[in-house]
Specification:
Oligomer: single chain
Helix content: 10-25%
Largest sheet: 8 strands, antiparallel, barrel
Number of strands: 8
CATH topology of the largest domain: Lipocalin
Radius of gyration: 28 Å
Order of helices and strands: HHEEEEEHEEE
Mean pLDDT: 83
Low-confidence stretches: 16-24, 27-41
Structural class: alpha+beta
CATH class of the largest domain: Mainly Beta
Distance between the termini: 82 Å
CATH architecture of the largest domain: Beta Barrel
Strand content: over 45%
Number of helices: 3
Length: 182
C-alpha cells in the first residue's frame, strides 16, 4: 500500500476515535430509572386501597376500590371497581406524582341487568310508563388529586348512563370529596 494512503487512513481512524471520545464525554451518564422513580414516589405501596366518593348532594357516597401496582417509571397502574348504589363498575387507570399531588386518572364502565328502577331513572320515562326494572350501561372518567400522605382529596367525574328504551341519564359532571377508608 502506498505510504500516502497509510497516513490518510491513520489520520481518518484517529479523527474518528477523537470525535467518538469527545461525544462520549459531552453526554452526561443516564440516571438509573430506579433513582428517578424513588424520588417521585410518595411511598405508595402495592396493595388494595378503598375510598368514599361523596358528591355532596345528599345521596349516599360511592366506594372506590383500587389495587395499586408501582411501576419502574415511578408511575402506578390501577385496577379495581367503583361501587354505586345499584351497580359495580370495573375501574382502571394510572397515577403519578405531579407538583406534590398524587394524580389518578381513571375510567370506570359497566352496567346492570334487570335492576329495580330508582327515582332518578324513573323521571326519564313518561309519567306512568317507566318499567319496574331496567337494564343499563354506562361509563365515567375521573381525575383525582390526592394528598400523598393522607390519600384524601378531590375527584372530578364525567359520566353518562343509557337505559332500557334508549333513555340517557347524563352526561353529568361532579366535583366530589374523596376520603380514604381504613
Amino acid at each position: 500500500m502506498p505510504i500516502f494512503l497509510t497516513r490518510s487512513l491513520r489520520a481518518a481512524i484517529l479523527g474518528a476515535a477523537l470525535c467518538a471520545a469527545t461525544a462520549a464525554q459531552a453526554a452526561p451518564p443516564p440516571a438509573p430509572a430506579t433513582d428517578v422513580a424513588a424520588a417521585a414516589q410518595p411511598g405508595w405501596a402495592a396493595g388494595e386501597y378503598r375510598w368514599t366518593v361523596d358528591d355532596r348532594n345528599g345521596e349516599p357516597p360511592y366506594t372506590l376500590r383500587l389495587y395499586v401496582q408501582p411501576l419502574p417509571s415511578g408511575d402506578y397502574a390501577l385496577t379495581g371497581s367503583l361501587l354505586l348504589d345499584d351497580a359495580e363498575l370495573g375501574a382502571y387507570g394510572s397515577a403519578r406524582v405531579r407538583d406534590g399531588k398524587l394524580v389518578l386518572d381513571l375510567t370506570a364502565s359497566g352496567g346492570v341487568l334487570q335492576a329495580p328502577i330508582d327515582e332518578g331513572k324513573r323521571r326519564l320515562y313518561p309519567k306512568g310508563r317507566a318499567p319496574e326494572r331496567v337494564d343499563s350501561a354506562g361509563f365515567a372518567t375521573m381525575r383525582a388529586l390526592l394528598d400523598p400522605q393522607t390519600l384524601d382529596g378531590v375527584v372530578q367525574r364525567y359520566q353518562t348512563n343509557v337505559m332500557t328504551g334508549h333513555h340517557v341519564q347524563g352526561p353529568m359532571y361532579a366535583n366530589s370529596a374523596i376520603r380514604r377508608l381504613p
